[in-house]
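I have been asked to look over a protein record a colleague put together. Alongside the sequence sits a line of tokens, each denoting a local backbone shape. I have pasted the whole thing underneath without changing anything:
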Amino acid sequence: MIRMDSVINLNWSRIRELTEAQITALEETAEALHTEVVQAEVMPRDTGTLQNESTFVDTSDSASGRVSIISSTPYARRLYYHPEYDFQKYENAFAQGKWYDPWIDGVYKEFCGDAFKNIYRRLADL
């Protein structure tokens, strides 16, 4: 009978670095998406409150793998879920309801995955 022994050494400091890089990459991906949406000029805009001051990335649960882009104005939900509204185009030329749809299942649906991958590779030094 042949007996074979193996020894596995885990590099815990590198595993910790990679885990921290995942969290940071997730946070930076959400920030990149927020920036992308603002630059695409698809959020309805009158004074800029919804787009600039009242929309932010919540990273409080990022260690659990969850970040959120939150719009804290009382009218954000109404504007988002009513694409039939006739949005003013003088501030944001492509203002519309459901402004995240192109990044969810539309032409930019690969944006977040690609952004996360690139940011993670940079942070993890891969």
Remarks:
- Helices lie at 12-39, 49-53, 76-80, 101-104, 111-124.
- The mean pLDDT is 93.
- The beta strands are 55-58, 68-71.
- Residues 52 and 91 are 13 Å apart (CA to CA).
